[in-house]
Amino acid sequence: MDSGVTDAANMRRQACPPQLLVFDLNSDELILRYRLPDDQVKQDSLFSNIVVDVRDGRCLDAYAYVSDTWRYGLVVYSLQKDRSWRIVHNLFYPDPIACRYSLHGLTWRWTDGIFGLALSPIDPETGDRTLLYHPMSSFREFAVPVSYIRNQTLADRNPDAFQPLGEPRAIKSGHSSGEAMDRRGVLFFNLVTQDSVGCWNSQQPYGYKPELLGIVGHDNESLSFPNDLKVDHDLHQSVWILSNRLHRYLKGGLNFSDYNYHILTAKTDVAVQGTVCDPNYTIIRP
Q: InterPro entries per the record (predicted)?
């Protein structure tokens, strides 16, 4: 997803229209360019995250889900139809209580809406998947069955399909950026104001609760503001995290003689060992 925006934090400039780009990684060839229609791009839109939904290797039936963080929308693109539609919902908006950020002695306010996106494995009973999402300025996780957002009419007529997932992850400092889920149903998510990466096992029976969220990594240097997170599709899956010290950049405090950007990775099964997210962990009913 190319947002088309440069220097979003300071002198924001729209260098080109927001667009989806599809590459053949074997040849580095650009095989598809889809520019979002004007009516799906709002003034100051910032398309910040994307997840791709491909099932049973049917690439031509792929869907992409894209979050518009600054204008609180979700864009759905169908490759087969080569068209997209925009969905709006009140649960894409920031929580005013969570708009205050504090990290490493710096305090600032953001009104960032829907940001992190993650797809669940396919439910063997319904054949459907769940899209998990959260606004950046929020302490809550939300969910919607993918079958609703794949049909624009269905999404517009069934706003109650979008629901909070369990309880807030924290009372404060629970801001999360990128997230992703592995094929076992373990969710990984960045905790930007804790210099940490969290986890939650969606297969355990007691829901999304603070006591059932684990920490798989914490470091004040290498995980200083973890901003993006992906889980790959290898047979033995890995989680990948990008940290960029964004808070220091915004305040003009980057030390250019230091390493300010880090890419970290771990095997998903190894990362959760010994945490409450480990599928082998015995959980006593809360």
A: 6-blade_b-propeller_TolB-like, MRJP/yellow-related
Say yes or no: 175 and 38 in one domain.
Answer: no
Give counts: helices (H), strands (E), the chain. Answer: 4, 21
Closest-CA residue to 136 (of 108, 106, 158, 162): 108
Model confidence pLDDT, tens digit, residues 141-170: 999 999 999 998 888 899 999 999 999 998
Model pTM score: 0.95
The answer on 14 and 105 residing in a single domain is no
- The count of structural domains within the chain is 2
HEC profile for 55-83? CCCCHHHCEEEEEECCCCEEEEEECCCCE
Per-residue b/e over 110-146, b at no fewer than 16 CB within 10 Å? Answer: bbbbbbbbbbbebeeeeeebbbbbbbbbbbbbbbbbb
Mean per-residue pLDDT of the chain: 94
Kindly report, residue by residue over 235-277, the tens digit of the pLDDT.
999 999 999 999 988 877 788 899 999 999 999 999 999 999 9
Verify that 43 and 150 share a domain, yes or no: no
Q: CA separation (Å) from 93 to 33, 134, 248? A: 29, 9, 25
Dihedral angle over CA of 25, 199, 65, 229, nearest 10: -40
Q: Which two tokens stand for residue 124?
A: 């063997």
CATH number for 213: 2.120.10.30
User: Do 236 and 187 lie in a common domain?
Assistant: yes
The CA-based angle 59-60-64, given to 5 degrees, is 75
Tokens found for residue 71 = 């204008």
Domain span holding position 225: 89-285
